Amino acid sequence: NAGVMQNPRHLVRRRGQEARLRCSPVKGHSHVYWYRQLPEEGLKFMVYLQKENIIDESGMPKERFSAEFPKEGPSILRIQQVVRGDSAAYFCASSTFQGVYNEQFFGPGTRLTVL
Amino acid sequence: GQQVMQIPQYQHVQEGEDFTTYCNSSTTLSNIQWYKQRPGGHPVFLIQLVKSGEVKKQKRLTFQFGEAKKNSSLHITATQTTDVGTYFCAGRIQGAQKLVFGQGTRLTINP
Question: What pLDDT digit, counting tens, does each position of A54-113 carry?
């Protein structure tokens, strides 16, 4: 069974460009979470999606950031007009829904660098 | 807002010494999970605690969930160099489906 796949693993963008981060969950998992991690810091929840639905986006910046999880294909985290402060590691995690038993499987992350 | 505080932020020990990290929440948690992240790696699930006062062991690791379900600890007995990494607790607020992560405790070990 393949784990959570994320690509690209490393992404370099100039200020003002767009960044698209992809996440393919564990096969059979319909719940996807995105987190951001700054160097030497913890994981900050950004958004929680089920297939085609955003369930909780309370951690997403109001502007420039969007996420989707279409019926077919990977989940996408999109950052428009990137700024230097967006440089971070972005982790995707997936889970099955079993009530409170909800272990999350993390992908290897995408490390975004904004020049 | 909902916060999960974790201490200490850093811990350096001699190989063979014990290590403990503590996690405290401002609100009652439905469950708490622990993850380990190696340098340059991604978080890997270690365990989940659900019941009040629950204690679970994995070899040299002991995990506890407080009676009030607001705090938790991870204790490693006789650390080994393979234990190096950052340990995160992550609590699930009752009724929510998102995890709130602590800041993590970075463990380094002198061989």
Answer: 989 999 999 999 999 998 899 999 999 999 999 999 999 998 875 456 788 999 999 999
Residue of B nearest to A4 (CA): B42
Question: What are the tokens at B40?
Answer: 């340059």
The sheet carrying B71-76 orders its strands as B4-7, B19-25, B71-76, B61-65, B55-58
SS3 B82: helix
CB contacts, 8 Å: B97 with chain A = 31, 48, 55-56, 97, 102
* CB–CB contact A44 B42 (8 Å): no
B51 → chain A, closest CA residue? A100
For A99-114, b/e burial (b = at least 16 CB within 10 A) is eeebebbbbbbbbbeb
Identity (one letter) of the amino acid at B77?
A: T
